[in-house]
Amino acid sequence: MRLHALGTGADLSSKFHLACVCCGWRCGPEFRHRCPECLGALECSIDLRNARLRDSDQPEIAYLDFLPVVAPGFLDSGLSVRTPCRPAPELGAAIGLPRLWLKDESRQPTGTTKDRLASVVLAVFRQFGIKEWVASSTGNSATALARAVLRDQSMHAHFFCGSDFMADHQLEPGDQISLNTVVGGYSDASREAQKFAAEREIAWEGGFFNWARREGVKIAYLEAFDTMPKEPDVIVQAISSGMGMMAAHKGAKEYLATGRISSMPRFLMVQQDTCAPMAKAWQDGRAELTDRDVISRPRGLARAILLGDGRASYPYMRDIAHATGGSIVSVSQRGMEEARRMLLEIEGADVCYSAAATIAALRVEAREQRISADQVVLANLTGRARNTEALL
Ligand SMILES: Cc1ncc(COP(=O)(O)O)c(C=O)c1O
Ligand SMILES: [Zn+2]
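That is the input. Now the predicted structure with zinc ion docked in place:
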């Protein structure tokens, strides 16, 4: 469905346009996810010539010039907060990387970095006049989006959730929100959600392919780059679809282009051994995932990254790993347990297994000498634990 900018069309076009990351096809600002020529992901290309950081506690206002949002009035204050980015020399020393930094996204209001995407996605919806839409998630995105919906009485959202992930959704269905359960996991829920949206001709939020999501989570990385006295050599984050890492890569490209950082960090993307289709394909040197890579009902401690079907987004992750000299790895359940305990005991950081997976991966990379002790490493702790992830 094509939805054109309402009212403020001219302003929008002067701020950004959409471009296909695969073939370069371009169009003006509209809520469209994929390239009509090659189905590639669209990314918003923002005019950064006069971009500057503003003085504001609200992250989206501080970084407004870097976002596809034309006016502060489209944003709802209080959906996300700036989070600490701090050195962790003790934990770093314990894993062989003393120049470790932690970006603590578990401090966001609903406990994950997804509050950042909720803020920008809702602003973009308001900008395009979209008031009713459909989304699906493993829990954290829907929880963050639902909170944002409840703060705007004109919004209505339909969430689809796999039955395996019901307990990971902390949202109250009501007048503005419906929650539909689909037998299975995230991929099953996503499929049903898209069908529902098409049948009723309402907007499909888009998940990985929603460029507004990526613009929102990008801010966590811009904040980190602006906080760190020395820019990171390596960035590490847990991946499910890889939306967060794609966002980080875009932010890093923008900061490189505008001279705010001087070189592209290596991107280390982390899955868990029980659900690691992308890490396996990367290790095999494969360009794509096939039907045989799909895990229909994935299980594992890191619940937020249990996406069994990574076919649509893997090629983007592979390209980023290649382009940055990075890698896609998987960590063991035990590795995550140990890392989570170390984060709590050494750093006082009570985070979820997906966040702890970053430290588990770094430990292995340092031990195998693929990252050296002199490297500045930034780990994004993307969330805190929900009731489904009690520390064992
Ligand atoms: C806590 C947490 N970490 C990491 C991710 C990674 O997701 P993605 O790769 O789709 O951005 C998610 C997604 O739900 C999450 O909730
Ligand atoms: Zn294209």
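The chain is about 35% helix and 15% strand.
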